[in-house]
Design brief:
elongated; single chain
Length: 424
């Protein structure tokens, strides 16, 4: 056996090369393993932070939070993740901003919250005014109905009697002299909107030469101020409030998504499509063939003025023209100090409302409501005659309203809140 075998230098270099390669591979594996473990822990922490905001929202909706005040929530979970919540309003909906944070990790969610209609929500709640309800023409009520003690009777308008086999396709129950109570905080908020005190003063933007604007709800609210504001040939999305001291006009060429319109008078022209809330102190006029998607809202909070008795017919405070669809809330607040000879809300034929109509005074309904109607009284204007507490051709069907619908917040312990829309 020979022990004096000599190796060439190239072989030693090859051995060293293989050793270096193995070392690099081992180091790469260790680094990759460490990186994978690090990102796994970071991902897990991020998921926990996101889940914490969901828990915080569920907890916050059950609490009586102070408006515009940042509250640290005690969720009873022993971890290092802190959660905070701020409750404000966006139109008729509550808006919650939830923040969960841990070290440098921070996750924010914004959400609109409204009232969940109970499963046994009635199709109709008609205030007790010591007179019966009269139903005529193609009118139809499907679902439970709260009616005056005088009940419901058939009638005849312009030679058209009642065409259905039943007066109410559901149970008849007794109403009271008061409509279901809306949330007190919501009503106070709507009052503040008239004095421009609810949303404070934010950054003001100009619509001149602006074709498009998108503002996240994580940013400060942007305002558009003016006397008479006409919206045309533009697209506005998100955290934007249009506030006019006299009138807002929305043209067909304007597209509004999640914005607020606030003015004494608001006019929506024919064929407008969008998702927005219009809140007025005097009147809202919706044209023909419009499509207002969920969650939209049309609100008139009328200032009460003492006037002399007058037999002159007034224009409706909320008027929705033919072939228009509204998905959301139609709301009139304000008690008359005089006898009215015209309705406060007028819904023309071939109008579809998916959601709720709440009217403290008189409603003229010729279209269809898939949802719930609460009103002081009905009114029908036909051939120059005024028919008090008459429902003529209008149809209400609470069974066709999806269970996912979220609308007005009502008062009382039985009222439940639910998410209407996640914001961005």
């Amino acid at each position: 056996m020979k022990w004096n075998l000599k190796l060439k230098a190239g072989a030693l270099q090859f051995v060293l090369f293989i050793g270096v390669v193995i070392a690099i591979l081992l180091l790469t594996f260790v680094t990759l393993s460490h990186t994978h473990s690090f990102f796994g822990k970071k991902t897990s922490l991020l998921i926990q932070t996101i889940k914490k905001t969901d828990l915080a929202l569920a907890f916050a909706m059950q609490q009586d939070l102070v408006l515009n005040d940042t509250i640290t929530l005690q969720l009873g979970i022993d971890d290092a993740i802190t959660t905070k919540a701020v409750k404000t309003y966006w139109g008729v909906f509550e808006k919650y901003a939830l923040v969960a944070s841990f070290q440098k990790n921070r996750f924010v969610k914004n959400v609109l919250v409204g009232g969940k209609l109970p499963e046994d929500a009635p199709a109709l709640y008609l205030k007790e005014l010591n007179r019966p309800m009269i139903i005529a023409g193609n009118a139809k009520i499907t679902g439970d109905a709260f009616l005056p003690k005088q009940g419901i009777r058939t009638g005849n308008i312009a030679g058209n009697s009642y065409f259905q086999k039943q007066l109410v396709y559901g149970q008849q129950k007794l109403s009271t002299s008061e409509l279901p109570n809306l949330d007190i905080e919501l009503k106070e908020h709507l009052k503040l909107l008239q004095s421009n005190q609810s949303y404070g003063i934010g950054e003001s933007i100009s619509l001149d030469k602006m074709a498009e604007a998108t503002v996240s709800f994580n940013e400060e609210t942007q305002f558009v101020f003016g006397s008479i504001i006409s919206l045309s040939n533009l697209k506005l999305t998100g955290n934007i409030i249009i506030n006019a001291s006299q009138k807002i006009i929305v043209e067909e060429s304007a597209f509004l998504q999640d914005v607020l319109l606030i003015a004494p008078e608001i006019i929506i022209k024919d064929r407008v499509v969008g998702t927005f809330q219009a809140i007025a102190s005097e009147s809202i006029l919706i044209g023909k063939n419009c499509q207002l998607n969920y969650p939209s809202a049309l609100v008139v909070n009328k200032k009460i003025e003492q006037r002399e008795m007058s037999s002159v017919q007034q224009n409706p405070n909320i008027s929705i023209a033919e072939n228009t669809s509204v998905q959301g809330v139609v709301l009139y607040l304000g008690k008359a100090q005089e006898q009215h000879f015209s309705p406060q809300i007028k819904i023309e034929k071939d109008v579809h409302v998916l959601g709720e109509i709440y009217c403290e005074e008189a409603l003229e309904l010729k279209g269809k409501v898939n949802g719930s109607v609460s009103t002081g009284t009905f009114m029908a204007l036909e051939n120059g005659s005024i028919y008090q507490n008459h429902l003529y051709n209008g149809q209400i069907n609470s069974t066709l309203l999806t269970k996912e619908y979220v609308g007005l917040l009502y008062g009382g312990k039985s009222a439940k809140k639910k998410i209407s829309k996640w914001l961005y």
